């Protein structure tokens, strides 16, 4: 799979942009703040229905405009399709595939990409929310139906929290909340499906993360990846109450996971009423990353954290490559090579060179190995510059500041 044409209208700093793309590697070069990342952000949005930089869509619409358009032509063997997304400053976004309306959340069904950006350092050093989002985005890319499951689960959590707040305000006894039992059933049904999907995904990722880390870092470090789940934490070990213990040992069995989920909800009911918040479920879980037996979040150096985050994304691409019927995902590397020494640059080039399409951004072209610079697109002030035009980097552009 590869992108053959990208059109932007009123997206970020682009009034309009048209870019022809080919299989292989394309390098976007330009000073920081010119619009390189905006181009690849638009491509990434169509595969995940989210931005890797902002949590709301309003920032994606050019100042003074009410909507933005992202239109992309994608090719897989002999089949071509056109995807279009209208991002509205107010109101719901609208999506089309081959001029037929589709739900926005269905876009990942038609196109897959994996994007690595400096923001992804938070996967290693940041809060659990970012790691959960990483897993869930990949779950949806592997099986788009989970977009609906995750949306429904989040709605159930909100409704359940509202009921818990009302119960706390009314001082109702825990055994009188029959309505809460109904929400519990739905919470367990949806949450179990998500936890099992995450478990299966991590099993696929684990060996690929280890391989990718060594490929990039060139070091004999041992990486560990596991899920810390709220249904397993502080699990009772007495013979009469064993479901959570069993769940920890059989994370992929939905029957065991659902039983553990229900038992944990029952045991935490009093705490949930006191705090008026749902304390059990995949929204409270974390992806635990270890390096040489120690938590990467607290012990990995900057270089090790950078390599670990990059390994997570390369492993994601490998998982999608195995799963996808449409071929390789498009691999996108945003301002990555400037952070790497020469050895790691070359090893990264070795790891990505055989993907069908790789898109790279850089402030300074020479930061990128020469074999990845065959096709170069220069960007300046929200416009595509002619290939023979000179776009000289400002002093420190290779390492100073975020691109856009």
From TrEMBL:
Source species, domain of life: Bacteria
Report the GO terms under cellular component. cytoplasm
**What are the recorded Gene Ontology BP terms?**
DNA replication; DNA synthesis involved in DNA repair; double-strand break repair; SOS response
Location of this chain's protein in the cell? Cytoplasm
Known SUPFAM superfamilies for this protein? P-loop containing nucleoside triphosphate hydrolases
Q: Which Gene3D superfamilies match?
A: P-loop containing nucleotide triphosphate hydrolases (3.40.50.300), RecF/RecN/SMC, N-terminal domain (1.20.1050.90)
Pfam families linked: SMC_N (PF02463)
A single Gene Ontology MF term assigned here is: ATP binding
RecF/RecN/SMC N-terminal domain location is 3-362
Query: Which keywords annotate this record?
Result: ATP-binding, Cytoplasm, DNA damage, DNA repair, DNA replication, DNA-binding, Nucleotide-binding, SOS response
Q: Could you tell me which InterPro entries the record lists for this protein?
A: DNA-binding_RecF (IPR001238), DNA-binding_RecF_CS (IPR018078), P-loop_NTPase (IPR027417), RecF/RecN/SMC_N (IPR003395), RecF_2 (IPR042174)
The protein's predominant localisation is cytoplasm
Q: Where does this protein hold ATP?
A: 30-37
**Segment forming the signal sequence:** none
What this chain does, per the entry, is described as:
The RecF protein is involved in DNA metabolism; it is required for DNA replication and normal SOS inducibility. RecF binds preferentially to single-stranded, linear DNA. It also seems to bind ATP.
Q: Which family does it belong to?
A: Belongs to the RecF family.
Extract the PANTHER family matched here: DNA REPLICATION AND REPAIR PROTEIN RECF
NCBIfam families, per the entry: recf
Q: What is this protein called?
A: DNA replication and repair protein RecF
């Amino acid at each position: 799979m590869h992108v053959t044409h990208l059109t932007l209208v009123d997206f970020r700093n682009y009034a309009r942009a048209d870019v022809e793309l080919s299989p292989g590697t394309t390098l976007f070069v330009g000073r920081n703040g010119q619009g390189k990342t905006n181009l690849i952000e638009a491509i990434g949005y169509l595969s995940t229905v989210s931005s890797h930089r902002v949590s709301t869509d309003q920032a994606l619409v050019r100042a003074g405009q009410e909507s933005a358009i992202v239109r992309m032509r994608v090719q897989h063997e002999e089949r071509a399709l056109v995807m279009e997304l209208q991002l509205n400053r107010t109101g719901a976004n609208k999506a089309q595939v081959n001029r037929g309306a589709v739900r926005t959340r269905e876009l990942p069904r038609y196109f897959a990409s994996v994007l690595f950006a400096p923001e992804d350092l938070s996967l290693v050093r940041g809060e659990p929310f970012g790691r959960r989002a990483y897993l869930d985005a990949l779950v949806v890319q592997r099986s788009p139906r989970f977009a609906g499951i995750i949306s429904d689960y989040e709605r159930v959590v909100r409704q359940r929290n509202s009921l818990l707040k009302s119960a706390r305000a009314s001082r109702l006894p825990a055994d009188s909340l029959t309505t809460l039992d109904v929400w519990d059933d739905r919470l367990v049904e949806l949450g179990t499906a998500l936890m099992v999907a995450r478990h299966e995904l991590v099993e696929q990722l684990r060996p690929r993360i280890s391989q990718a880390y060594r490929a990039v870092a060139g070091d004999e470090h041992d990486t560990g990846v596991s899920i810390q789940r709220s249904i397993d934490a502080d699990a009772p070990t007495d013979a009469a109450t064993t479901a959570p213990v069993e769940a920890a040992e059989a994370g992929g069995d939905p029957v065991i996971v659902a039983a553990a989920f229900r038992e944990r909800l029952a045991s935490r009911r009093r705490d949930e009423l006191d705090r008026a918040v749902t304390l059990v479920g995949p929204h409270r879980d974390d992806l635990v990353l270890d390096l040489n037996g120690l938590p990467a979040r607290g012990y990995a150096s900057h270089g090790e954290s950078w390599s670990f985050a990059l390994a997570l994304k390369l492993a994601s691409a490998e998982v999608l490559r195995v799963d996808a019927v449409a071929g390789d995902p498009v691999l996108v590397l945003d301002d990555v090579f400037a952070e790497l020494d020469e050895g790691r640059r070359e090893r990264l080039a070795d790891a990505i060179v055989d993907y069908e399409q790789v898109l790279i951004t850089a402030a300074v072209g020479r930061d990128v190995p020469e074999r990845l610079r065959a096709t170069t697109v220069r960007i300046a002030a929200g416009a595509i510059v002619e290939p023979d035009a000179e776009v000289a980097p400002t002093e420190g552009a290779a390492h100073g500041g975020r691109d856009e």
